[in-house]
């Protein structure tokens, strides 16, 4: 993570500068996007500690969040992620098949609508996944300072549901607040979401009852990766990793 910059996730053709912000400014920035009903891509370089960063992205449509994650994704990756999660049996061939079916496959929304029409996915599945990703991105940005840039260009036209709306803001923040309360409850064991687990000793490994968890811990607990880094690599909820 150390040394990474937002240049790694720049929208092609964009040269917008990064703007510093303090931890207390992020809520005001997000509220201004909601009030002004903006559409675009909000890129964050979240500073965990000097020289150590997380990259997070939130895509907005008319003042609502439609996607959150640790990087920008294109339409192809979006489809691959969703199909692999909900219809893994089709994950090897779905994108090529979609391109053959559609006249103008440049729109991610068009591709999602087609998959829903063919009953390979439902809007409920898509929204559940998107809600979880946005909650992770928000909880990993709130409470930290860093730098940001906002582009009015939409890299992925990812709108949800039959009406093309965004995620429900109140539900997003309820989930974030509930999770923050849980992080606080385990604070005596894990000091925060950006905590770095120590490498396992043989004695510590022997105390882990589940073999799979012990193997993951031996591989990923290297004294450098945070809990969130490990969860991202494993495609797991950071709270699940923390409980493990």
Task: Give the topology, please.
Layout: E1 19-21, H1 25-36, E2 40-49, E3 52-61, E4 64-69, H2 75-86, H3 94-101, H4 108-117, H5 123-139, E5 145-151, H6 169-185, H7 202-206, H8 211-220, H9 227-234, H10 238-243
Antiparallel strand pairs: 1-5, 2-3, 2-5, 3-4
Which descriptors would you attach to this protein?
single chain; disordered N terminus; 5-stranded antiparallel beta sheet; 244 residues; 15% strand; alpha+beta; globular; 10 helices
Structure notes:
Strands 1-5-2-3-4 form a five-stranded antiparallel sheet. A hairpin with a 2-residue loop joins strand 2 and strand 3. It has 244 residues and is of the alpha+beta class. It has ten helices and five strands; from the N terminus they run E-H-E-E-E-H-H-H-H-E-H-H-H-H-H.
Proportion of residues in helical segments: 40-55%
Strand percent estimate = 5-15%
Are there runs of 5+ residues with pLDDT below 50, and where? 1-13
Q: Structural class given helices, strands, pairing?
A: alpha+beta
Taking the sheet with the most strands, its summary is:
5 strands, antiparallel
Output the strand order for the largest sheet: 1-5-2-3-4
Short description:
This protein is α+β, with helices and mostly antiparallel strands. The chain contains ten helices and five strands, in the order βαβββααααβααααα. The chain has a five-stranded antiparallel β-sheet with strand order 1-5-2-3-4.
């Amino acid at each position: 993570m150390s040394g990474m910059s937002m240049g790694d996730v720049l929208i092609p053709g964009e040269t917008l500068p990064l703007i510093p912000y303090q931890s207390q400014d992020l809520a005001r920035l997000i509220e201004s996007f909601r009030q002004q009903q903006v559409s675009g891509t909000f890129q964050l370089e979240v500073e965990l500690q000097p020289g150590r960063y997380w990259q997070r992205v939130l895509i907005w449509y008319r003042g609502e969040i439609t996607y959150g994650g640790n990087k920008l994704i294109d339409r192809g990756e979006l489809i691959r992620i969703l199909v692999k999660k909900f219809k893994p049996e089709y994950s090897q061939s779905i994108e090529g098949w979609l391109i053959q079916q559609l006249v103008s496959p440049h729109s991610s929304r068009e591709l999602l609508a087609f998959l829903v029409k063919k009953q390979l996915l439902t809007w409920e599945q898509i929204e559940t996944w998107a809600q979880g990703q946005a909650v992770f991105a928000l909880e990993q940005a709130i409470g930290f300072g860093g730098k940001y840039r906002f582009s009015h260009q939409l890299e992925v036209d990812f709108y949800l549901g039959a009406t093309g709306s965004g995620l429900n803001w109140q539900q997003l923040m309820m989930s974030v607040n509930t999770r923050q309360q849980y992080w606080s409850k385990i604070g005596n064991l894990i000091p925060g979401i950006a905590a770095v687990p120590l490498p396992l000793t043989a004695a510590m490994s022997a105390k882990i009852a589940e073999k799979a968890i012990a193997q993951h811990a031996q591989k990923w607990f290297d004294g450098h990766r945070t809990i969130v880094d490990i969860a991202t690599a494993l495609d797991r909820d950071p709270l699940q990793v923390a409980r493990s």
